[in-house]
Write a structure and sequence with these properties.
single chain; alpha+beta; six-stranded mixed sheet; globular
């Protein structure tokens, strides 16, 4: 999923078939290249803006940091850890989001877009407002 400006995406272009995505906006991991791409695509629709602030690597771990503003008007900061294997394929991506209100808003927004596709219990739902044990 190379961007419209021709730049390679930090991890989507190199996902392994069985890659895993974990994150503070998900109640459980999401597995599989196509599922991860679909979820990241849905996240993008909830952003009014996104500004990368850091990208670097130490050995096979890559780190991504950015700021975003959600369409709801909330500001969000994200940090991603991208784990690659010896061939360069991405095996795991772990994303953390803050502050809490923005992270919950993002999770609820994702539930509205892809909740039926991935299972409504994957995302925060304010109507239920239940914290489940992992």
């Amino acid at each position: 999923m190379t961007g419209s400006n021709g730049e390679k995406h930090p991890f989507l272009d190199d996902l392994a078939d069985d890659a895993e995505l974990r994150g503070t906006v998900l109640r459980r991991p999401v597995s599989g290249r196509d599922n991860i791409k679909r979820l990241v695509e849905a996240v993008g629709t909830l952003y009014a803006s996104q500004t990368p602030t850091f990208y670097g690597a130490i050995d096979q771990r890559h780190f991504l940091q950015y700021k975003a503003t959600l369409r709801t008007g909330l500001d969000l900061e994200a940090v991603g850890v991208i784990e690659r294997d010896e061939t360069g394929l991405v095996r795991r991506v772990t994303m953390t989001f803050s502050p809490l209100d923005a992270a919950l808003s993002l999770s609820a927004g994702l539930g509205g877009i892809v909740g039926e596709e991935f299972g409504d219990d994957l995302f925060y739902d304010a109507a239920i407002n239940e914290i489940t044990a992992s």
